[in-house]
Amino acid sequence: MPKDQASNRHFLPEFGTLRMAVGLALLAELIAIVITIGRNDAVSEQAWQDFNLLSGFAIGIALASVVVLKLASPLLRRLSVAVGSAVVVLLILVVAVISADGLIFALHDMGLIPERWPEWRPSFLFRTLIIALIVSVLGLRYLVMQHRAESEQKSQQDARMQALQSRIRPHFLFNSLNSVAALARSDPSKAEAVLHDLADLFRVLLADARKLVPIAAEREISRQYLEVEKLRLGNRLRIKWNLNNVPRNFQIPALTLQPLLENAIYHGIEPRFGGGTITIAMWGEGDMLNIMISNPLPDAGRSASHARGNKIAMGNIRERLETQFGDRATLQSFAEGDQYHVKVKIPITAET
Asked: Which of 193, 205, 348, 235 lies closest to 283, judged by CA?
């Protein structure tokens, strides 16, 4: 779809939301207050009666407009910006006129006015139309600009997430391919299994970064990655999982664990002559999920080259979490004794 058509289709906000209804009701209430102040010199019983009548009338128009625009939204989204805006304003004016006539009939039926067609009816309808026109044009302009700003912000967020995920290019790929090449002759079936694991890993890598994945899927990808690494490191790499109170439907950004595990192997296992154990702990705590990945510190004298390793993975994941969850998600790293820990806290987000 051409860019201009795409922008035309989604220029309007969603009118049927509770947020929109409340916002328009508050705007209607503000208009009622302004008109009441303009019509009355002081606070009196008459002023309160005017306010109650105007408030009910204005809120009625606002809520009726929300319903009508919600019903018309499939048509509006197929129109251009100019035509769609004109149709929105026209619909609001029609609702305002019908509501104004309905108010006159209601007042007559209640005996508050003697005539069904009072002399002031044309003037009342005209003033209602003028006020509705001014409010609808200004209000629509504000809503469209706000909606566009939110859409652009979301597009920038999505692009940033995709860019961050595209930076994850695990350097274990080359080592893994070498391992597969070595297994191709000695153990073809295991080589085939490793290739399947690598295919799953890179399928996740190339997936839409905006989507969250179930924690079970992220754990499976991590397990596959660790199995690939065990081919290269053998008994030097040992894995321990500790899971406690992890929600089954918990959602997590894809490839959150794998880069951290890769760092733990590169900085904690490879520099050690005897290897070590990587511990992955997960536990729920209130509305947060905690993830702690621990690995041994490198042997003395063998950490220099690995210590110079870049912090791309840590910074990448921190940015992705911030983009996805704001300041509710955190990533911390610290050394304690002979262990290095990376702790991630993520708000529990259920699959919708």
From this structure: 348
Chain position carrying tokens 């909606």: 147
Distance, in Å, from the CA atom of 160 to the CA atom of 319, rounded to the nearest integer, reads: 9
**What is the rounded CA–CA span in Å between residue 134 and residue 126?**
12
Phi, psi of 255 (to 5 degrees): 55, 45
Which residue in this structure is represented by tokens 């009622």? 32
Token pair of 226 as six digits: 């660790």
Tens-place pLDDT, residues 13-45:
676 677 777 877 787 888 878 777 777 776 677
How does DSSP assign 260-311, residue by residue?
A: HHHHHIIIIITTSTT-EEEEEEEEEETTEEEEEEEEEPPPTTS-HHHHT---
* Letter string b/e over residues 121-130, b meaning 16 or more CB atoms within 10 A of that residue's CB: eeeeeeebee
pLDDT digits (tens, 9 = 90+) for 253-278: 877 888 889 889 888 898 888 899 99
Cα 252 to chain centroid, rounded: 13
